[in-house]
Amino acid sequence: MKSLYTVFRKINRLFAEVSGYLIALIVLLLLIDTLGYLVRFQIPMMIELAVFTTIAAAYLGLSYTEEIRAHIKVDAVLSRLPAKVVRWLEIIWGVVGLFVIGLTAYAAYLKAAESIGDGESIAGEYPLPLAPIRTIIAISLLLYGLQILFNLILDIRNRKQKVN
């Protein structure tokens, strides 16, 4: 399992890096759109591309954020609880999160498969296909769910360790 987790962590880092590059691309797309507006020469679909890129950047970073346990949580409440209770709460929330993200990833997979099959796209001067972004969402949610599972396994293994 250790070598599998090592490969998975490399995938997380790759997706996180791609997410960072996509954020730079969002800035570039919005800058081009703004400059085009100022000189009265707008390139069609720039805003739509920026929105798709924003969605991809957000979803691609989910798994890495979970790996480093940087998702939002209420530390003010958790810091007042005994360490043993906090560990059990993390395990319980891991199970709940795994269930919810599992269902969401499955729904995203179904929607991506439907978009691929139907050739669904956003109408406009140049139709933008929805299948690529929906596939990114489905894959990202699957990786996020797997990372929750890995963290859950680590939490269960480590729950008996002494807390400083």
Describe what is shown at a glance.
This protein has 164 residues and is mostly helical.
List the helices and strands and how they pair.
Layout: H1 2-38, H2 46-60, H3 62-67, H4 75-78, H5 83-118, E1 121-122, E2 128-129, H6 131-158
Antiparallel strand pairs: 1-2
Helix pairs in contact: 1-2, 2-6, 5-6
- The end-to-end distance, rounded to whole angstroms, is 28 Å
Structural class: mainly alpha
Which strand order spans the largest sheet, edge to edge or round the barrel?
Answer: 1-2
What proportion of the residues form beta strands (DSSP E)? under 5%
Query: In DSSP terms, counting alpha (H) and pi (I) runs of 4 or more, how many helices?
Result: 6
| Overall pLDDT level | 92
Number of domains: 1
Order of helices and strands: HHHHHEEH
Helix content: over 70%
How much is the radius of gyration in Å? 20 Å
Total number of strands: 2
Taken from the alpha-carbon principal axes, the silhouette is elongated
Largest sheet: 2 strands, antiparallel
- Low-pLDDT parts are none
Q: Mind explaining what this structure looks like?
A:
With 164 residues, the protein is mainly alpha-helical. It contains six helices and two strands. It has helices at 2-38, 46-60, 62-67, 75-78, 83-118, 131-158, and strands spanning 121-122, 128-129. The chain has a two-stranded antiparallel ribbon with strand order 1-2. A hairpin with a 5-residue loop joins β1 (121-122) and β2 (128-129). The longest helix is centred in the first third of the chain and has 37 residues, at 2-38. It is elongated, with a radius of gyration of 20 Å. 20% of the residues are buried.
